[in-house]
Amino acid sequence: MMGFSSFRTTRETGEAAQACIDKIQTLAVQASEGCSSPLYTMIDIANRLERDPRTAKNIWVVRSNTRPGAAPEHTRISAWPLHFSSQARASEKPLLYLTSSSTSAQLCALSSESSQRGILCNDIETISSIWPKGAHPWVPLWLAANPRCLPFDPASGAEARAIALAALKSLYVDGSNGFYYMALHDEPNDFVGPMDKHSVSQALQGMYKIAELEAGPDRPKVRLLGAGLSLRAVIAAAQILHEDWGVGCELWSCPSYTRLARDADSALRWNRMHPDLPRRSSHLRDSLNVEDAPVVAVTGYAQHVAEQIGAHLNSRFVALGADSIGSLPTRPISSKTVDKRWIATLALRALAQDGKVPQEYVKQAMRRYLLQ
């Protein structure tokens, strides 16, 4: 099967990917703090695949980043030599690329180097920068606009592991075109524990519910969405809303706002072209249009990344990003996420606009949380 790649996808490609999948699935869930973050989960997976003789021959691992740490001696620092290897060109192997790329130009060059294939893991978020998530503002635009790229922003090591497994199966067992992208941070999220099959299935579609803080049948309710590291601030904001204001909160992890938006856009186009046939829905609409409660979506990127899903929702919608409150900083960012106090306050404002809480609550919150 030939796709965008300059490598031949063969039966051996699928067998190599399945060997890697089997290896990852047998790994014990890491209980230590270091291996529970998305970054160290993927580093651990790469190390184990390269060090095991049974899988080392079945995967190409490239580490172009300079992060210190033990790595197998045969680690590659570029994918370009593979293009000149007759053995590599004869049968593609799964490609896991670990990088620290801060601009869309770097990512564009890297994706060309890897023939628009593989699992691209970017740890730029862990490096001090004036840009949100360490990425130039064009990076999320490039990721969202590139049809060959399926971008994810995992909140936990469990999410990163699930995405890696899905990518191996989709790209190399099923033979799909394109590449997966993961933005990796190095902070654990203890609130997001092991994932069952249902959670994994929904996460790969873009979002899944992780918890609900109930506040009684007659109390107002909001749905709070977070991606990547921003999910921690969302969880903290939910606790503020629940404890200080008696607001019920649904908590959703959204590993990919872009996938949610693409699937919803696809359903919308299909319905427009087939008006006489039963309407198609999407995972986004099935998840969030079942009831009328405000939706607050938070991202560590600029606000427009979360805004991608707003047009498909019937409820009041608020998107928050690194540029939502004030202007972008001109010095290295000290806080990596949107402030939990702003998330809670703007959720209250959405409820007030729907007439579900008094407008005075918003003024009180601004004073109480020193936001004025």
TrEMBL record:
Database matches in InterPro entries: PDH/Transketolase, Transketo_C/PFOR_II, Transketolase-like_C_2
Pfam families hit by this protein: Transketolase_C_1
Organism: Pseudomonas piscis
Stretches assigned to the Transketolase-like C-terminal domain: 206-326
Keyword ATP-binding: no
Protein's UniProt keywords contain Zinc: no
Keywords noted in UniProt: Pyruvate
Annotated Gene3D superfamilies: 3.40.50.920
Protein name: Pyruvate dehydrogenase
